[in-house]
Amino acid sequence: MTLTEAGAGYYQRAQRLLADLAEANASVTSLQAAPRGRLRVNAPMSFGFLHLAPAIPDFLARYPEVDIDMTMNDRYVDLVEEGFDVAVRLGRLGDSSLVARRIAPMRRVVCASPAYLARRGVPQDPAELAGHDCLSYGNATSTNDWPFVTAEGQPWAVEVSGPLRTNNGDALRAAALRGLGLIYLPTFIVGGDLQAGTLVSVLDRHVPQDSAMHAVYPHARHLSPKVRAFVDFLAERFGPRPYWDLVE
């Protein structure tokens, strides 16, 4: 005998509910209980690979009774439906029933290689981007519109175009380092290049800095020692001034 698809789905959800109940009971019994058990984490691909993955060994060394199951992708996941304990979310949060904690600011920059800027010139105004090669991030809400603010602080969407569009920020960085064009990315991807001078930021006063990085988790995980420990670790590791934004 085998379970039907509906039966398998019911069984998986029942398992999660029973695990949540057991964890809630344990948390109520002792809020100071040592973090333990499996922690399912979701993170965006670039941030997860560049920053979260190198940090996890330190977390596991601090909490040896926890083991982590981490999934990295750039799609929006349903934490409750897919059984994640916590996720890292970048940018503005939509309306949600999830608990959210701000971890760090998320600065963005428009930048290019010194070779590209020497060849094509340094744009002084976002309107000048019409004459530049702009490499676009394919997962953005509006791929060909880059968000800026006017001198008066009003939102200003500027249409751009260029020879490359991709759904991965690391691929855009690699292309920009080769002098292919301008990119608009978070500093957690290009911060090291800006510090090293291999990429140079432009139009800084027109780039809005209203985004942040959050840890989000279901209300059912609110009292979980392992979730609390992980979120506290993220805030300690990455905020309030991320190391990728520090200027030597």
Show the helix and strand layout.
Blueprint (H helix, E strand, L loop, with lengths): L4 H25 L7 E7 L1 H18 L3 E7 L6 H4 L3 E5 L8 E7 L2 E5 L1 H7 L13 E4 L7 E5 L5 E5 L5 E2 L2 H9 L4 E5 H10 L3 E3 L9 E6 L7 H14 L10
Parallel strand pairs: 1-2, 1-3, 6-9, 6-10
Antiparallel strand pairs: 3-12, 4-12, 5-10, 5-11, 7-8
Instruction: Examine the secondary-structure arrangement and name the CATH architecture of the largest domain.
Output: 3-Layer(aba) Sandwich
What is the number of helices? 7
Structural class comes to alpha/beta
Number of strands: 12
Q: What's the CATH topology label of the largest domain?
A: D-Maltodextrin-Binding Protein, domain 2
| Helix share, percent | 25-40%
Give the neighbour order of strands across the main sheet. Answer: 2-1-3-12-4
The backbone outline, from C-alpha atoms, is elongated
**Percent of sequence in beta strands:** 15-25%
Give the C-level CATH assignment of the largest domain: Alpha Beta
Give the number of domains. Answer: 2
In round numbers, the mean pLDDT is 90
What composes the largest sheet?
A: 5 strands, mixed
- CATH superfamily grouping of the largest domain: Periplasmic binding protein-like II
Cα-to-Cα separation, first versus last residue: 65 Å
